[in-house]
Amino acid sequence: MITYEIHKPFIMQLETNDVPFVSFDQYNNLVKLYRDDFYAAQHVDSFICDIGVEYNVWTVECHNRYYRHLWFDQIERPISISFEVVDLRKSATIPLKIKIFDADGIYFEQDQSICIERRVGDRFLISSWRKVEPVRAFVQREVNG
User: Fold this and answer.
1) Structural domains in the chain, sorted by start
2) CA gyration radius, the chain
């Protein structure tokens, strides 16, 4: 599992006059941002260069659980987001569990099934994650510790 701290000033940028807490859509946006711009970019070799060129990553299925509000005016403890590759039983998809939480518990949780589309000739085809070496190496490291 890989965890990042979401710094309070970053979360406060989400605040609007309409809603005094992080909304469902904002939780989803945080998950996407941290998954694509931090988690994948920092841990999958050459992700920044290869994504959209050698392969693409798609969320095939997504299940969300909203546990409690994160009130902007009550943020006192660090907020974290974690990513865990749950298992590697399927070769077509990668199961990813994402949680946004603090010391008091979980705010939001998302289970994703991710698939890989890799370039074959001049087009992209849905493929096993096992056929994309940098992705394979990373997910195997994550699950096997």
Assistant:
1) 2-144 (3.10.129.10)
2) 16
